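fyi for ur records
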Amino acid sequence: MPRVKISELLEIKDLMFELITGKEGLKNEIDSVDINRPGLALVGFYDNFAYNRIQVIGKGEYAFLQKCSIDKQNQIVSEFLRFPIPAIVFTHNNEPPECITREANKNQIPVLKTALSTHDFQLRYYSILSELLAEEITVHGVLMDVFGVGVLLQGESGIGKSETALELIERGHRLISDDVVRIKALSENVLMGYTDPIIEYNMELRGIGIINIKNIYGVRATKNKTQIDLVIYLEEWKYQHEYDRIGLEQQYSEILNVRIPKIVIPVRPGRNVPILIETAAMNFRLKSTGYDSAKIFLDKVQKKIFSKKADNI
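which gave:
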């Protein structure tokens, strides 16, 4: 199971963290996207206490601690920090009480504060941790953003994926990754594809060699990630094979247990594959709005057939 160190979270600017104490505990790890608001724990109720999560001290918990006497604070904190808590976060830029910084430092528990409200912190934290802790694989292919649709191009080596991607880039679309695509499942139906940190925006073109898309075409020709909406598989045209000519049979590709719509495009000399991919991306967007051209066409044909049959009766 993926884990994230507190030191990694400290480097994420969107969380606006400031380390107060507990530097030795930055090696502590978390494996859950959830946080814990320890209101019940602070009043002494520890049944089902989720101590293995980030403990967030919001306005309510902070106000409670501030109203307690020094002796009471010491008692609460002594009980609270006997658990192996990965880190404590104070929101609204609130300064931690001295008893917490003292005991946390002793127990190697990082104490952080953020200027974010508790609500905003929770939203950002969940979004960031969902990515960091998501299951990840790498696949062979080219990932492009075509008209805002994340298109994963796959096919046998030498079929022309990179050359097709290059033509799409020339036409104003954006490259995420060529050859090696990192993919994470952010939920049951969302796949996110990322640039490989080693390959980055380099592309291999047979006969030319390695080129850098970002350096040649500019920063607007690349992105570092995109949601994967459509898989397009390129294969050599098989003359005995019956290809779908209407578009009613939806195929799917399963990646990390997430089903993604798949289209197979046969490649042969004379076919303009980049234009076909653009059309497939635009048709996907149209279907997303509820308009399915193939189904509407078939309905019209069937109505016409039934109408003629009725006239002949």
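The first helix runs from residue 6 to 10. thats all i got for now
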